[in-house]
Every structure is written in structure tokens, then in C-alpha cells.
## 1
Amino acid sequence: MTAADIITDPDLRAVLDAATLAQQQCDALLALLAEHPLPPSSSRPAENQMPPEVAEQISSAQKALHAHLAAVRNQNRKALLSVRATKHATADARHEVDTLHLALQNLYYEQRHLESEIKACQGYDHPYQKLPLMPEDEFAATFPDVVEGCREAAQKAVLERGDKAGGGESGGEDVGMEGGDEDTAYEEEVFEDALMKARIEHEHKERLALEEKRQGLLKKKQGLIAENNKRKEDLAKLDESLEKFIEAAKPIEQTFQKEY
């Protein structure tokens, strides 16, 4: 596998291509110098020791090599700038990913918190569950009109819910079936809630009636107690009167007991 197969970035490929051209030009220059080696140093200048056409070829090759090296430096500078930009983009993307990951963890935490709150609410021991309410069967047999009203209220709630959520939505047969099951479950939930409220309201009215009856009996009891207290006072006064009468009658009794 060559470097060209490993490197896929366009900027790095441009650097590699420019370096390859510079290498080829350098090899060509070295081959040209190998074909026309310079003689040992002498008193004459080096450019006078080789033919003019060879010197011109070497000069042209050196200029081409310098041009390729300049292209390599230029492409290398572009690649470095591209790497810096990629690093900045990677840092920004990492920051965004970290932010999204943190938000996701917060959502997971909130989900677990809400699930625990829902379980706590579902398992809460509500006081109304301990009320001695009339059983549902007995309530339905005693107040069928109230039960029918609860059923109608549940059906109306389902229709209102469908009107709010159904705006221009369209779905297939499976969606319709799922929606029907959901509506049925929602209707039963609303019906159970309305029925429970009706039973609690009935228990409240019964307790109010019993409380009113208890207050009436309490007043009657207080009246009887007051009447009994008054009779006790009258009897106490009668005892005092009898004692006084008996004390006053003693002389008369003694007079009748005397013998003449």
C-alpha cells in the first residue's frame, strides 16, 4: 500500500503530488549532473569547464526544481492552515457533542425523576380510597341516571380530545386501530374518574344529612337534659317543702298523741 492509498485528504494529496514532482525534478537534475560530471577543480571557472548547452540545461533544471520546491512550501502552508481549521472545527464539534451529551444525560435524569414521581403518585395511599363508599354495583342499581351521565361525560371528553388532536392528521389502518384502543382506554379512565366523584359526592350528601340529623338529635338531647335538670330541681324543692311540712306537723302530732 502506497502513501497515495493511505492519504485521502485533498490538501495532503496536493502536498504529496508537489513533493513527488520536486523529487522527480531533483532526480532529473542529479541524472543530468551524473551524465556531465565536473572535472577536478582548476584555475578556470566552473561554467567554462562544461558546454554552454549543458550549463543551460542544468540552469533550467535548477529553476524548475526551485519552482517545485516553492510549490511544495505553498501546498505545505495550505495543508497546515487546513489542519488548523480542521482542529478548530473538531474542537467546536466536540464541544457541541459534549453539550448534547450533557443535555441527554439531563433528560435521562429528568426521565428517571419523573418516572419515580409517577410511581410514587400511583402508589400513594389516597384518603378517598379509604372512604366507606357505596359499592359500584349498588350505586349503579340505585342511581342509574347518574351512571349514565358519567358515561355521556366520558364520551364527550373523548370527542373533545379527538377534535383537539385530530386537526389534519391522517394515518393508516393500524394507526386507526391503535387510536381506537387509546380512545377506549381514555373513555374508561374518564368514566371511572367521574363515577368516583359521583360516589364521593353521594357520600358527602349522605354525611351532611346524617350530620344534620345528628345535630337535631343533639338539640333534642340537650332539651331533654334541660327538662330533666328542671324536674330534678323541682323534686329537690319538693323534698325541702316536705321536710318543712313534716317539721311543722310534729307539734300537731304530739297534741293528738296526748291522753286526756
## 2
Amino acid sequence: MIRLIILCFLVTFMTACSSIKLTRAGYEEASHQVIIKEGPIELRRYSNLNLVQTKMRDTEDSGFMRLFRYIDGNNSSKSKIAMTTPVFTSENNGERTMSFVLPAKIKKENVPTPSNEAVQTITRTSGLYASHRYAGRRVEGAPIKIQKQLLKWINNHDLQSKGDPINAFYDTPWTPPFLRRNELLIEVTQK
């Protein structure tokens, strides 16, 4: 009898866990084509990406929750939108921004209008990006060492950086730091 109870508990527990997205594997990833791969660095071509974004005022959490409420139905169509990866953060002239990538099936003309004025929808036009993958905690701005390595790689491949670095975070907050996939992206052009 005890074995049956334990078995029932385990089956129930496993079923519950399987419905929760515990890793990035359960999420759609922003579509891109890898052109060059050298260790942790890639040169990628991204298609147009529909993004929902907000300014990060005090903490990363405040921006995340505004965006989460948008995909949870706080939008003109009241529709829930699937979470995707990565979550982008960037800083431009001291203003920090967080962005979610909308699923590819949602075309630009069908993107629901945000109900919160602090949230905007934009289209990031297609472009070429150098990306450096690393593990660890989420920090605003990649470690200086990562940024220096990526800029050196860009220069060595006759590319020119264009714009500010973009952080890309792929994992849930409860993923152990050593297993996390983080990236630093810099848009580039041919010299």
C-alpha cells in the first residue's frame, strides 16, 4: 500500500513538473542564421524581430513585470502571448531598456497594442550581429572581458560595430548560474 501511495505521488509530481517550463528548451527562440561560429562567438543574421519593450526604471524586475503583464493579456486584444527567448536588455545614453521578442507567428500588423503606456511595440529591422556566449549571473552589461573579446573579434574580421551592446538572457531566474546561457550582442557592418 505504501508503495502504491509513493508511486501515485511520484506520478502526480512528475506530471506537474512536466507542465512547467523549467528551462529555455520550452521556449521559442528568436530566429537567426549563424554565418560564422568560432568557439563562444558567432556572427548572425537576424530577420526583423517584433519586440515589446519598456524602460527599466529602478530594477530589472519592474521592467520584466510590465512586459510579462503585456504577454499575459494586458494588451488591446486581451490575448495571452507565449514567452520567447531571449530577453534583451540594453543601455543607450543612460536609459536602460528591456525587450521581449514576440513569437514569429505574430506578424507586425497583428501585434496587440499595449494597455500600459510605459510599454511600446517596435520592430528591430534585420541586421548582422556578433554574439559572445557566456554563463553566469545576469548583470547589466556583460563582463568587461567578454566585451573586449567580442570587440577584438569584430575588428579581426573586418567588421565595424554599430550601436550599443545588447544583453541577451535565455534562462529562467532559477537556473543555476553555471548553466545559464547569456550573450552579448553587438550589431556590425562590413568595413
## 3
Amino acid sequence: MEQFLNGYVEELFSNISGTISVSLVSTLDGSILAYKARPGVDNRLASSYQVEIFRNAVLSFENTEGLADKSVDDVCLVYEGQTHLIGLLQSRKILDHIILDDTANIGMAKLLIRKIRTEAEGKAF
């Protein structure tokens, strides 16, 4: 399983332009399951914290009138010089957290992430 998760992270990291780091985070306890980043970058703590941000987004969404029958699959956070894309894998036990720099094409990145995620989920998770 570890080899599969590392392969998934590597595929995201190498195929999405402008990637700073990619993490797979357990939704159960916030532990990092797989990680890859540019040299000199360590975003693992930030990635673990994203589980809480995602949970809060889901709770807020579920408590909004008229949205109870919908679900949150992705969250996008934009900071100065960085964009954080957080997605819930189909198993709902793993989040992928991709941090992009300000040169990245966010629309293209989202399409590639969705494609790579769908292919990976078809193999095994």
C-alpha cells in the first residue's frame, strides 16, 4: 500500500505544473501517509492541519440551508503566492493536499488532479 500511495504522490507532483508539495493525509488521525516536495520545503505540518479545515468546511456546508443533500469533494484555499487544493479520495479516509505556486494554472491543475485521482482510485485504495 505504501508503494502505491508514494506512486500516486509522485504522479501528482511530476504532472502538475507549479507544484510545491503533495501530501496524502489520513482523515482518521491527520497522519501523513505519503509526501513529496521541492527541495528545502517541508509542508507536512500544514498538510496535517488541512484535515481540520476540510472537516470545518464540510460541517459548514452541511449546515447551510438547501445544501444538505450535497457533498464537499474539494476545497481550494488561496494565500499570497500559494494555492492549496484539498481533495477527498473516494475511500473518504485519505485527503490529497496539493500546494501550488502562483505560476500554476489552477483550472488545469484541478483537471489533472481529478484525472489522476480517478485513475488511482480505479486501481486500489
## 4
Amino acid sequence: MFQPCKQWLFSVFLVLAVILPSLGQDPKTYEGPLQVGDYSGQAVYQYIISDLDTIYNGDFLWQQSNLETLVENEDASFRISGAFDQGIAHGPWQFEFGEYQTNSQSQVVGYEYRVLVSGTQEKGEGRLSEGKPDGNWTYTINQIKDSEIQQILFKSDITYDKGVPQQNFQIENDSSVLVGRFLRDGLAHDEWSYYGTERVEDMEDWFFDDGLLRNIRLTTDQVSKEIQVFDTNAPNYKTIPLHMGYIALLEAVLQEQEVESGIAGILSQNLSYYQKIDKVLRQLGSDGFQMEAKVKVPFYPLDSLQTKTLEQIASDYQVAANLSRTILRNSHLNIVKRTDPEAYFYYNVAQKISTDFLEPLKALVSYQENDIVAYQEIPVMLQRLWPNGKPGTEITVAANEAGALRSFRLPSSEEFGYESNDLLSVAALGTYARMSLEYIKGSLASRLTNEEQLQMLNGLEEELIQLNNLLEREVDSVDGLANDYKNALAHLQQLADSSLTTYADMKNPNEKLTYGKSIKICLMELTDLAQSLKNIPQQQETIKKEYTNAVWNPFMANVMAEQVKKRITESYEEVLIPYFLKATSSLECVNVKALNEQIIQTHKTILGLRNKDTRKLERKLRSEKRPMEVLQLLQVTSTPKNQ
């Protein structure tokens, strides 16, 4: 006889406990305004309440149109209708989006005034099964003229099985048609053909083999060109969605062929319209509306170092791109460079860095954002990005309008080598571009407009405020610390406050900017020092435990704790720690980093001495109470004296 186990029964009861309360409810009806994401309109829908959340359950209608806006200028309308089952879109759905204008002429039909409209209408419709497209789905864009369809601008017709595209499909726009097919698992397969509507002849064909795009045939004026796309002998392959990332990958692979794919373009159109529906449904709480088409691509897995290197490249690129825009778009600089040879030279260097360094880096960063770097061989990808080789550290440009040449090179250019075909070399190139633009901007600072200097100061001041707030949080979180620690932390905040006051009183923008940058570094170092000071009590306990032995006491017949090498621990606790805390009272920004490193180094040194022969050191420490001499005996670098 079947005996259900307790675990199985518990699972059943748990599911019933969650489902039954909502199943027993009668749906309520809401009628009124609804705003979700970018859309706001009038809605009528059914819902239930579960755990204080409103769950769509039943018919749903949401629409918006405005006659007054239409008559005055233009109206963006929408109408979304369908049904939900326990919060998941299910059953027939229809999405309409329109942008209309009117000539303000109206007609009376029966008892109604009617206004003729012109514009575009988007309409997506089909059936959803548990949030996924199921059966036939169409998405149509019509050109409307005087309330009649004048032209079909776009139409896609795809059959799905719970989100997976099946069999043949067709996508067309006003000048061309794409036909192709999928396997039952959604993999692209066989030949996809793209032809013109005026002349029924193939303009482009894609040839898939079980999801892998082997080659493309382009036909122009009855002349065909074959292009091999993906390596059919790659060591590894990966199945990925046919999404915008795949289109970006194809554009990267076809870049050196200098061709523009019509199929890629029409697929991108269709994906963007599907994403529009998906965004609406997600905002309504129903996920999963995606065309789960699949393709295969070569796969070259990235290791952790390569992944981290890509992040560094992206970071340096963003900084460099902002610097480049600041320099090249500065209207005052564009005027000054006409008569100022130095400004002319640096402007041209920035322009060449933007072209030779940043544009390829921008493409690489977009590959990272689209998650397609791992589908390209790194050396081949870099060759495509820099077909003529990567630029060198010496950048030669016109020095004046007469065409005389002059070269720019960072003073530290010898430290940069990026000739190799790997990501580390690209990271070095990106860093060189960033540092070069920082150098150029500094050289051009006196030629920037006051407005630009003000923008630079505003950005710096925002950073200073954030850093000071961070320091304040460290200084204020002093629960459990003794008063001498609290006083030391207060001294750090006093130094920060006095430095910021000096900065605020400065009038010269250039001097203020230079001083502000030094204060920025000081605030970061003060925060690090605050953390080190707060760590001392815990480090003190660690050292005490490390220097304690368990010793058998024969008189008491028990084990007792005995501290060893007392002269070392006493010098640390009675001489050095008070010195560290007192040093904060006369601290200046130039000494902050050194004091912090001294505290950290001392802790490491004391721990390291536990298992070393320290008899000679202990004899010297016996009567030494001067902090500098104790640090010298411990071979810890002393803090430079305040000037």
C-alpha cells in the first residue's frame, strides 16, 4: 500500500496554503486611471488581493487618447487589451500604439463628430500562454492617411510554441521581404532569403546549419559575393538567443567586409518591436514575452583575468571619452586654437586620440556590454578593431595651419607597451589614452572658458562633499571606543574641515582647482587612516592572543595563560599606540598616508616577531620609551615630521 512520506505531504500542504486563498476569491473590478512606466491612461481590469499585493486576474483593458492634444498638435495614443491568469498574461492579446495628426476638419456621422487622422499605427496581436507567445503572432505598422491605411510599412508573421518560434516565418517592410525557418527547438536552420518587393530576386541569403550561420551570399546587379561568417571548425560552440547581441556580433564579424546586411537590419526592427511589448508586460508584472529564437556561435571562454581586464578597459574608456568630449566640444578652445599654436597642437592630439584610440575602444566596450567578446577570437577581434595596427605612444599631428608636424608623447610613455594581440595590451592602450587626455586637459586649463572651469570645480566639489560625508560616517561610528581614540578621530575631521575652509576661501579658479584635487586625495587618505585607528583595539587583542602561551602550573595543578616577549608587546601598547593617537593632533595632509602606513606596518611587524629570535631586540627595548627610536628598532618607517 502506498504510504506518502511526510516531506511530500508538507510540500502539498504548502502549495495549497499559498494557492487556495487566492483561488477562493471573487475577482474585483477596477475602473480608473493607471500609470505604469512610460504609459498613463484609463484602465478597466479585474484583480485579486494576495499578501496585500494587487494581482491582475481576468480581463484587462488599458487605453489613452486625447482629442485636445490631437487638434492642437499631435497625439500619442495606445490601447492594450487581453487577460491575466494569476498575474500572468494569458489568452488573446492586442497592443496598439499610434502617433497621429489631424487637419482639424471634422465630419458628422449620425450623432457623432468624427475627425480624420494621419500618422502611423503599430499593432501587435496574438495569443499568450503563461506569458509566452503561442500560435501565430503578427506585428504590423501602417501608414495612415485621412483615417485609412495608405501603406504597410512593416509586418512580421511568426508562429510560436510557448515562446519558441516554429517552422517558416516572414518579415517584410516597405521595400523587402525576409523568409526563413526554425527547427522545432527554435534553432535557425537552412536558407534565409531576403529579396526586394519590386523585383522578386534574392538580394541576400543566410545559410544556417543547425543554428550556425556558415556563410552569407550577397547579390548586387546579378553579381554574387560569398562571405564565410563563423568558423565551422571552432573547438567549442554555444547556443545563444537570436537577440540584439547576436546582431551586434554579426556586425563585428562583417566589419572588415564593409557590407551592410539587410537581413540583420530587418531582424533588428522586429526585435525592437517585440521588446516594446515585452517592456509593457514586464511593467505589468508578467515576464517572458520574448522571441526565443536560437543560434549557435563559436565559443572562446574568458578567464577571470580577461573579464577583469575588460572591466578596466571599459572604465578607462569612459573617463577618456568624457575628457575627449570636454576638449573637442569646447567652443572657446575652438576659437583660441586659431591663433594659439599650443592650443592648436593639443587640440589635434586629442582629436587623433579620439579617432585612433577611442573609436576602436568604444566598439570593444560595446562588445562587452552586449556580452559577445567570448564569441570572437581575441587576436582576430583586435585585428578587426585596428586593421592597420594599434597606434603607438608617439602621436604626430599638425602643429599649425601651415602643416608643420609635431609629436606628442607622455613623459612616462616608456612604461607602456601594448603591441601584443591580447586584452592586457588593449588595457595598457586605454590607460595611455586616458592619461594622455588628462595631461592635455591640464595643459589647456588656462585656455578653457570660465564656464568650463566652473563646471570642473562643480564636479570636484561634488566629489569633495561625498568624500567628506564618508569620513564623517567613519568618525561618528565610535561606539565602544575609548576617549583617546574618539579624540584622535575628531582631529582627523578637524583637519578635513580646515582644509575645506581654506579651499572655500580661495578666489583664483586655477589655484582652487589644483588645491581641491590635493584635498580630494587628503580626504580619501583620512578615511583610510580613520579605519586603521578604529582597527587598533582589535589588532591589539590579536597580538595579545598571539603572544600568550598555555603553561602548566604544578602548584595549582592547572593550565595558566602566560604572556611572552612582554617587552615587545609593552612597547607596542604603552609607547607606539599612544604615539599614533597623539600624532593626529598635529597632522597635516602631507603626513596622513605615511602615518596610516606606519600603523599598518607596525601591526604586521609585531605579529611577525612572535616566532623569531628577539632576545637582542628585547634588551634594547627594555628602557626605550621614545616612539621614534622604538619604531627604528622595529625597522618601521617613521612618519615625516610636519613642516
